[in-house]
Amino acid sequence: MQRLSKSVFKKLPKLKLYLDEIKNIYQLLEQAGTDSHQSVQLETADHNFSSIDELKNLSDEKIHYLKISKSFTSSTHSTNTYISVHFEPYNAFVYLSEDSLESVGILAKIEEILLKTRSRLSFLTRFGFIIFLAALAV
Predict the structure, then answer these.
(1) Which whole-number Å values give the CA distances from 64 to 4, 10, 96, 124, 126, in the listed order?
(2) What does the angle CA 23 – CA 28 – CA 32 come to, to the nearest 5 degrees?
């Protein structure tokens, strides 16, 4: 008997991402799989990029839609695995074509990267609120 793999769709919290977080997710997907010839794809609503450096050139523009994806051969299975991370104005999610140990591990790492972002933003929001209250007291 062989276990059938299932696809995974995971909704993410809405976040404001910075280039560092995008770069961390990009590098994580670069390391995925055994095919070194498969590259990570970056896509906005208007552009396709072949590297993270090209995305840096849009630093003046606010990006409302971003898709980071990679198709690769899993190190544990001989099947092709596809992972995509989507960031939209009111929606963010990760899609895994299979629930292999490797791809679920990548999902956990992506969530870890985004949790750090969320923690940093909530700290700044709380700290900013305290400064606002202090300014009112004066």
Answers:
(1) 36, 19, 22, 22, 25
(2) 145
- Report which of residues 108 and 131 the model is more confident about: 108
The owner of tokens 């969530």 is 111
The pairs formed by 62-67 with CB atoms below 8 angstroms and a separation of 24 or more are: 64/88, 64/89, 65/89, 66/17, 66/22, 66/42, 67/41, 67/42, 67/43
For residue 2, pLDDT over 80 is answered with no
Taking the alpha carbons of 9, 13, 16, 19 in that order, is the dihedral positive or negative?
negative
Indicate the DSSP class of residue 51: S
Q: How many alpha carbons fall within 13 Å on the CB side of residue 135?
A: 6
Residue 133 carries which DSSP code? Answer: H
pLDDT of residue 85: 92
Between CA 25 and CA 33, with CA 31 as vertex, the angle to 5 degrees is: 120
Which pLDDT tens digit goes with each residue over 76-118? 666 788 899 998 888 889 998 888 888 888 889 988 888 776 5
Q: Where are the beta strands (DSSP E) in the chain?
A: 8-11, 41-44, 48-49, 66-73, 80-88, 91-96
